[in-house]
Amino acid sequence: MSRKPDMLRALRHRNYRLWAGADFLSVAGTWMQVLGVNWMLLSISHSAASLGFGLFLQSLPTMLLAFVGGSLADRLPARPLVLTGQTLHGLLAAVLAVLAFSGVDSVWPIYAVALLGGMVSALDGPSLGRFGAEVVGPEDLSNALALGSVISSAGRIAGMGLAGVLIPLTGTGTLFVLNAVSFALVMAAVLGMRGGEMHPLPRAGAGEIGIVSGLRYIGRTRWLLVLLGLAFVLGALGRNYQVTMAAMSEGPLNAGAAGYGVLSVVFAVGAVLGGLYAASRPSLTFRILFAAALLTSVGQAVSGIVPGLLGFALVLLPIAAGAVVLDTTVSTRAQLGTEPTMRGRVLAAQTMVGAASGAVGGPLLGVLCDTAGPRAALLMAGLVTLAVTCGAAVLLARCLGHRDPVATAITALGGSRRVRRPETAPRARRSAAARGPGPAAPAGRSVRDARRRPRRTRA
Fold first, then answer.
1. Which end of the chain is more exposed for a tag (fewer CB within 10 A), N or C?
2. Does this model's pTM top 0.90?
3. 44 and 134: one domain?
4. Which residue windows does the record flag with biased composition (Basic residues) (predicted)?
């Protein structure tokens, strides 16, 4: 019997300990590279629009190629796909280092690397998810995903902090070199995992492969569509705090760049607390999912009317925690309740939903902040996500076959444990896991890849 507390139960797996270390290196390296690329683009173009175009190029392949990557992940062994993806990302980081040290004065080579990196991320992201599920197995998947959220937040803080120190001292080239080295270390961790301690998922058969088969499966799995729809709306209107925090700091709070920095730290702390809470739960249920959705929705509406920087920061803390719990629970429920042979394509669908929510929500919230004001934008977005959460609870209850879906949804939102699990997968296969322990990070790279948040394709 392991003496580790339940919160750390995934760490009893030697392979996961290697994976967690690789995850931290992945996220730290990703954020070092993100800051380095942003600084290079600004130094060359002196235009913030150039940053947005670079992010667009990195995210575009996810919308176009994610299902291709999902089909590959469901059909081919995960480890070779993961190693191939890490090799390609390492080579791209090395190319950026060469560009930085050579003093390139054009943004187009940087854009080309961003586009190629996005393509690699879209193709190998689902294989990272399947491989991560094989590292811990279904019984500890939710805990591994939650710990991944904590590791992601810690890696982001470490990577951004180190980048802030190194850029003025050594320039951006050093950041890219360190990132390339980190890919090699991640590959070493993957190669060092014991095959006998893995939990392999079955691969898709001849009649189950392909994009069309995946789309049909997702289309007929109604409860999964409800979850993805809820994730899209909350991701678009309730998760783009990079926009609203900046608008509030510059506008109503009159806090400037310093206030924005404080709010960013508070958000990171809240994300860590949310990850720790999710990791402490023996399982992540629909009750927890909708409680987190309600918390973030009500909190967002309240954040639009609370006065002062301190008050806004205090409301922001539980919002960030609830967002991490919500994301982790959606991933856990979606992937533990679906067919293992479809897992890569389910992961691809989640990745596409995350990318689409960011692409839609960021500009929409920006327009609302400019036209109605940041406070009104937060209030309206919070009320919309609250209504969608309640509607999703009713729809989910109906999809699960409850005769009185409204009463069942109210009971579920109030804390009942009686909402039963989806019946889409045969009972013997339902516990098969699907996704990697790490959560989302900067677009195009991350050990968990999935999600949201820009993220790095990494082991």
1. N
2. no
3. yes
4. 450-459
